[in-house]
Amino acid sequence: MNVKELNPDSSPQAAFGARLRKAREDRGWKQEDLAKHTGYSSTHISAVETGRKMPTLRFARRADIAFGIADTADTFEREWREIKHGSLLEGFPEYVGHEGRAAEIRLYEVGVIPGLLQTPEYATALVESTVKRGVISPEQGAERIALIAERQASLIRTSPPLVFVVLDESCLRRPIGNRSVMEAQLARLAEFAELPNTVLQVAPFSMGVRRTLSLPLYLLTMSDRSLMLYAEAAPRGHLERESTFVLPMLTAYHQLQAEAPSQAASVAMISRIRKGTS
Predict the structure, then answer these.
(1) Which of 85, 103, 191, 222 is the most buried (most CB within 10 A)?
(2) End-to-end CA distance of the chain
């Protein structure tokens, strides 16, 4: 193969292909050898290496297994997610990969309903506004909506995670889309609270200084009980695994849950807002 066919700097897709080829050559493998390890044809391997074919999530995961890097921080899956979701904040594509395999998910959100709980109409209204402001392209907007659907699918897998959600009251008060969009979104929250693997609480404005968190926070507990934290501070996000940073935030989250009204009281509050009586 003529290595000049591929310029690694031309695009993220080309960089993926160049890295795949280097990993293969470092092991002394031919394309046929990698094909046997991944279950793809040598023609497919060649097309990915030269950037003529976009890698898929399944392909990236097969490559990670073939090269023995599936449990490391620098996987082909991570690179694939950065290609597919390049408009997202740093750290978030990697977080999403772990979220889909987490045993427990804990969320705290301010100002906007988190993606795992969004209706398609609510998500579309948010994305359309972002596209209109020129922050992302229509194509990137479509990718964001598809990603939300992908993440929500993880909640109904065979062994679904336990999901704990605390919403700042601003999430319920901030109108997104028209009245019917918000009505459906609030109804979706009530439905979410009824699931056997979820807990939903609202942190009302009246909590004041008793609110232990002020910025959005995403905490994951994996099947091996390891912890990781994703947090955002404009204009970037950060995924943290070091326990000295994660454990204090987990403690703050538990304190927030203890101070917030119960799920029953929170659902009653959502109902009052839907009816316009609160």
Answers:
(1) 85
(2) 68
